[in-house]
Structure formats: C-alpha cells, structure tokens
C-alpha cells in the first residue's frame, strides 16, 4: 500500500515525545486513512488498520462512537476487555461510571463522542483473564492519525482527556492529571482539559474513596458543562 502523508491536525496538540516517536515509524495509521474522512469511512478504514502490532492480539478495532458535531469528545487510553469483544468504546463498567457522571454533571450523553487514543486492546494473560497493559509511546504515535481525523471530522468544542495516558499523549509528557485536572487550554478554537479515567474510580480501595473520587469527576465535568454554556452564550 502506498504511503499517504497526512498533515497533523493543527487543532490537536501533539507533544514532542509523540512527534519524536512518529518520526521513527515506517508504518502508522496514516497509511490506512481513507480519503473521505466521514465517520463511517474512518470507522471502516480503521477495521483494517495494521499501523502497529496491537491488532494481532486484539479481537477487533474499537473506533470512536458518537455523532458528527458532538460538542464534547471524551478520549480515553484504549478499549478494555469488554470493549474489545463488543467492538464499541466505553460499554463496560468504566463506561457506566462515565455515563452516570455525565448525567450528574448535566451533559447530554447524546452530544458526547467517546473514543480512545489507541484503538486496539493491549493486554497480557493472567490465567483465563486478559489484563490491561499500557500502550507504548510508539504505539500511541502510530495510532494517533485516527484521533486527529476524529477531531477534524467531529470538531468538538471541548476535548476531555480521561486519565494520564490520554492527557500526556495530547497535552505533553509533563502533564499531571492529579495537579492539573479541570484546567483548560485552548488550541484553534477547541478547549482541552483532563480528568481521571472512570476505571480509576472502580479501583478505589473502599466506598468512601469511591464516592469522593466520583464527586471529583462530576465536579470536573460540571466545569466542562459550564464552559460549554459560556461558548454558546459568546
């Protein structure tokens, strides 16, 4: 397949670490992007993506889900076990937590596009279980053209990074969710912010911690809701 050079999306920050990794790639998702960047075409193209080796152990590509024109884009790290089997993002326990938090924050779930910075499930076996394994910078860089295309097509008003992998992949390796969650930065008309990944709430050691972390996630999403209202009023 002939290589296709795709310019990076100016509306999507690309940290130096990801850019450096991208320069060393001989193949990436950019080689599989369709000319027509409608969501159905992108989703179809992603099914056959061989831009890195993660597809070899995954059940299928898990592309983003939502409508063109969604006002909010949620970007997680990668699909989990249930998402890998279903072929849809955020349909497992973490997705249920996210849906509950969005409702509590007053954000219409129908106007949210959900996706991941990596589209295949990376895992390691543990008995009969498949345990999540963090994607490498090289794998994130190889998959990045899909996310850039999603942002170009959906053109959300706000992009919310869920967890440190998505936040550092989009906002820089020095970004710390624990210190900078809920802060906003703007690039070419799109606001970027970060909060914890809903799965981290599920890993809380006790109910008290779980409730506290859920309240903090809702607080961050209420800031997103407020920023949306301000943009509509402007």
Provide structural commentary.
The protein is α/β, with parallel strands linked by helices. The chain has one domain (16-233): Uracil-DNA glycosylase-like domain (Uracil-DNA Glycosylase, subunit E), CATH 3.40.470. The protein is 42% helix and 14% strand. The chain contains nine helices and seven strands. The chain has helices spanning 16-23, 39-47, 81-86, 93-105, 137-154, 164-171, 177-180, 198-202, 207-233, and strands spanning 72-76, 112-116, 123-126, 129-132, 158-162, 185-187, 190-195. The strands form two sheets. A five-stranded mixed sheet has the order 2-1-5-7-6, sandwiched between helices. Helix 1 packs across helix 5 (137-154). The radius of gyration is 17 Å and the shape is globular. It starts with 15 loop residues before the first helix and ends with a helix. Mean pLDDT is 92; it is low at 1-8.
Report the major sheet.
5 strands, mixed
Overall number of strands: 7
Q: How confident is the prediction overall: mean pLDDT?
A: 92
Number of helical stretches of at least 4 residues: 9
Helix-strand makeup class:
alpha/beta
What is the percentage of strand-forming residues? Answer: 5-15%
């Amino acid at each position: 397949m002939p290589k296709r050079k795709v310019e990076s999306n100016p509306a999507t920050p690309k940290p130096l670490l990801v850019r450096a990794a991208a320069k060393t790639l001989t193949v990436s998702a950019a080689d599989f992007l369709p000319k027509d960047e409608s969501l159905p075409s992108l989703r179809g193209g992603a099914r056959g993506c061989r831009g890195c080796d993660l597809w070899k152990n995954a059940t299928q590509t898990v592309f983003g889900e939502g409508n063109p024109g969604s006002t909010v884009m949620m970007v997680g790290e990668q699909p989990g076990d249930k998402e890998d089997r279903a072929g849809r993002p955020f349909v497992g326990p973490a997705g249920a937590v996210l849906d509950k938090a969005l409702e509590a924050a007053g954000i219409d779930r129908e106007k949210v596009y959900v996706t991941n910075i990596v589209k295949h499930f990376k895992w390691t076996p543990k008995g009969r279980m498949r345990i999540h394994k963090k994607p490498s910078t090289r794998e994130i860089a190889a998959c990045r053209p899909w996310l850039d295309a999603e942002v170009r097509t959906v053109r959300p008003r706000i992009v919310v990074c869920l967890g440190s992998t998505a936040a550092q992949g989009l906002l820089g390796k020095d970004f710390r969710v624990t210190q900078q969650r809920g802060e906003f930065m703007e690039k070419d008309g799109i606001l970027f912010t970060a909060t914890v990944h809903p799965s981290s709430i599920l890993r809380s050691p006790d109910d008290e911690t779980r409730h506290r972390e859920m309240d903090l996630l809702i607080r961050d999403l209420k800031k997103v809701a407020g920023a949306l209202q301000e943009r509509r009023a402007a």
